[in-house]
Model the fold of this input.
Amino acid sequence: MSNAQEQERKRFLTQYSEIATLAGGLAHEIKNPLSIISMNLELLNEELEQGDSSQDRRMLMKIETVQRECHHLENILDAFLQFARVGELELVEWDLNQIVRDFIEFYQPKARERRIEISPHLGSDLPPVRLDPALVRQVFMNLTLNAEQAMLDGGLLELQTYFREGRVYLEFIDNGTGMDEQTNSKKFQVFFSTKTGGSGLGLVTVKKIVEAHHGTISCDSESGRGTKFTISLPAADAVVEDTC
Done:
């Protein structure tokens, strides 16, 4: 990377960090009163559940509607806070295979509940990579949730790692419903979602996190035939050389 490119990258990261801090603070300010509103709605719900009049039942239905919308807003704010935090990296050298193994162990109970078989194929020659473990875990969660929503009746999720030409690759492959061409072309757009109540920030956050690690992400998908996300990250020694 040239000095001019490095300076431009640092300038962008500084500007992004300032915007992210402001947006994150605003989101927190919204979450606080929203939590109080939700708590009071829960108390009202408990009181009205004890009533047996038709008016009580009508009010209870209205309160439950407002509760659902509050929950939806909380989910959007949580997703936005994850999105805003991307600029705050704490990089450490890690074995990507170990992170994959730890994640599979964590996710396995839910996978069994959802009738999803996890099939890991981990390369034996991976060099370490410089990662922020918490953010990479968020990538795993978001991509797995995406696959889970595409396999509502269960299915197969393959996680593959390999090393090629100085870069470490990770693939998430599911045999779910896949995406049509139009959906695939918009998947990384902010607030775009095909899911009812979806924030439209999940895959955007994944892309931001990967790019913040000097990585790339691509997607191959076909309606009815499943989806494959491929993440490419530089080996740790390559990052050190690039930033020297």
Observations:
- The longest strand covers residues 155-164.
